[in-house]
Amino acid sequence: MSDRLKELALPIDDWIFQQMNDALLFVDEEGELLRFNDKAGELIDGDLQSLVDLLDFHQLKKEETPKLVDLPPSGGPLYKVQCREVEKNSSLYAIFLQAVPMLDQTFEVKKKMSQRLTVPSEGMVIHEKGKIIDCDDTLAHMFGYEKEELMKQDAFTLTEEGEHEALHKLFLSYPEQPYVLKAIKKDGTPFYIEVLAHPYPQDDRVLRVAIVRDITERVHNEKKIEFMSYYDELTDLPNRYYFMDMVKEAIEEKDGLAVHFIDLDYFKQINDTLGYSFGDELLKACASRLKLHQDADTFIARMGGDEFLVLQRHVNHQTDAESLAQKLIEAFRKPVVIDGYELYTSVSIGISLYPEHGKTAGDLIKQADSAMYTVKEKHRNDYLCYNTSISEEFEQMLSIDSELRKALKGNQLELHYQPQKSIHTGKIVGLEALIRWNHPEKGRISPATFIPVAEKNGQIFEIGDWVIREACRQNKQWQEEGYPAVIVGVNLSALQFLQKDLVHRVKQILKETGLDPMYLELEITESMAMTNEEYIIQTLNELRNLGVHVSIDDFGTGYSSLKYLSRFPVSKLKIDKVFISENQEQNQAIVKSIIHMSHSLNMKVIAEGVETAEQWDFLKSEKCDEIQGYFYSKPLPAEELITVFENKPVH
């Protein structure tokens, strides 16, 4: 020690100077070390002059607030350092180094790790092999404890038993990435945490400062996404992707199996009548009923819409599959009760067998679907096992589906018009627009074939708009060419009529084509009119306010009553041709009643399917207003209809 150091008088008692728990150094104005106590001598191997240089004495003496430093410079204990001039103009400076308590160091650790964190609200804990030494209030509250209570816990009591083995391994390593654990709160509530640990040397032991984040919401969202990938959210049943995987696994077992493709009968009518919320409740109720038949050999899933799938394992013979199908059909004989409604629904089931009908999951589902489609078209409330003739019919349906999408763009669709004639004047008073499909290779395809397909694949809306627009355009053109102004009638499907924006669509089309609304008539069936009374009446009133006529087609085949008809703002009833073509005494009585009832309600009556002079005479004698049928004219393309306009009345 230099003479200058020996002679330096300390501003504190020498004994106190040496007994201090914190390091204290004295330096001159140039930063040369003059005196230090024993605690300071323990720092960085006693080379205290290098410490003064490391602390950047000249910068340190300018700072008014304490400075935090690691000693040694990287990864060592954290110290709070201050520098003050002992007396003004004394050229003597004191450097004071105070060890920072462990918990106070955590914010510094967090700062070092900040680039790996995304939120500022993590809890922090210091532990040694899981035993908690210190923590902050955020972590304590995260687990539902007071801080003092948490001091008595360890990582193993705060996590589920299944995580303990992983924890032991983690305490023996230094994972660079955050790891996820399932933790337990004080009240027993499980939740998920993400932990990012940072080793912290302390004397002869290594502690860990861990940053802990509650990621329960994130994990639940991830699980929800996973659930949505394999399950149907509405019914909680597996979805078709999960079903495909299960069929693939069953095929690998080289055991006999069956796929049942199930469709709810009349679901669309129920959905359209009672609303989509009611339809959802019905789907959930049906799913619950199907779940009652789930066991070790059956796996049930929702295909989508009102379609379900059942995988049946260990099927040795076709009769095994048919037996299950019969049980499923029987299960739906009891009504489903929803919101006080007792609904009687049934199911149509198509069955395919492995390996007879397909060797892949996709083929088996496809063949079962085609068998179900056949049941649906012919019987309903029944089952059918796949055969090759079904495949040909189903392939034709799929072909029509594909070709129909090209028909509109390829101008393959056209309208024919069947004249409607006044019995009293003999003049044409209206035209019914009827769609035709002229396929470039297959020729004429019947509407009875392609309209059901369009309703199933949703193209009915595009086709329906096209029919209304084309009928209005053509009628306006005839009027501009000087032909008599008559009403053009267009049939609406149930799906079209139940569109929420139907009235707006019709209004737009009339505006585009320039046709006066009084020359457009929309035809709905009697059964459509009765499905959802209040909604139907609202739509009919809106159409009437628009100036468009509405008629009820196929009248007499449904279950209308005078009470309902009196509330409907319709202008015309069309008697179904079944009552005209069969000249039985009973049918004639029905026709008379319909005519009389219509007139009493200030509605006109038109009879369709009139083919003979006898039918004409009968209708004329009963004061029917109009007729339509081959007796006067078949449906004609627009260019041929001009000759009918020019012809003189026949009767």
From TrEMBL:
Residues 255-388 form the GGDEF domain. Residues 397-649 form the EAL domain. PROSITE patterns: EAL, GGDEF, PAC, PAS. Residues 124-187 form the PAS domain. It comes from the Bacteria. Residues 177-227 form the PAC domain. Pfam families: EAL, GGDEF, PAS_9. SUPFAM superfamilies: EAL domain-like, Nucleotide cyclase, PYP-like sensor domain (PAS domain). InterPro entries: Biofilm_reg_signaling, EAL_dom, EAL_sf, GGDEF_dom, Nucleotide_cyclase, PAS, PAS-assoc_C, PAS-like_dom_sf. NCBIfam families: GGDEF, sensory_box. This is PAS domain S-box-containing protein/diguanylate cyclase (GGDEF) domain-containing protein. It comes from Halobacillus aidingensis.
